[in-house]
Amino acid sequence: MNRLLLTLMLFNVLFATAQESGENKLGSWHMYFGTNRVSEKLSIHTEAQARYYEQLKNFNQLLLRSGLNYHINPNAIATFGYGFIVTDGTYEKIPGETESKEHRIFEQFILKNKVNKVAFEHRYRLEQRFLDFGDRTDTQHRARYRLQVTVPLAKAVFLNFYDEIFINLQNEVFGQNRLYGAIGFHVFKNTSLQLGYLKNHFSSAHFDRLQIGVFINTDLRKTQVTN
Fold this sequence. Notes:
By secondary structure, the chain is mostly beta strands. The chain has a single domain, classed as monomeric porin ompg (Porin), CATH 2.40.160. It has one helix spanning about 1-15, and strands at about 25-35, 40-50, 60-75, 75-90, 100-115, 120-130, 135-150, 155-170, 175-190, 190-200, 205-220. An eleven-stranded mixed beta barrel has the order 1-2-3-4-5-6-7-8-9-10-11. The radius of gyration is 19 Å and the shape is globular.
């Protein structure tokens, strides 16, 4: 009951501040994340996201990302990856934004730990961004840090929260901040679903987003047969 009350209080706070949004419509992100284990030390990350200024209309961004994960141990993972991003940033509330295509290289390190049944995850990421605006190109670099907390409620139900800050390594230091809260369900053994809310702050505007995320973790290693 205490966990349920805490969840309701969090979502009330988040939605109470939604009126400060830089737009009139509540947008949505539709996301897929996959981790495919191929050996004891290696797995492949796959990801696709479609982002909208409104619910499934008024396109904002398509993000495709993949990476190779090296599992140092069960609580430490290093990743090298690539992303391709198409963005329509012409929403009128963000001055100077335009359409762009981006090739992105990233390096990432994840540390995990538990306190009782509560799981904590620290994600550190560096990104090298190669942007094409049609009439000009630009190269940018930034760092990201995300603290994620997962709280189990029942065998198949959990809460997930995170806060992530983006730091530009050129020009204005602050890039954006993302605050997220969701309820999750373990649908199958290797598949989970999250329904959540994201508050995305930029220096010139901020947005409220509903999120639907599907997470699929597969193990492609051959089962060893012992005689």
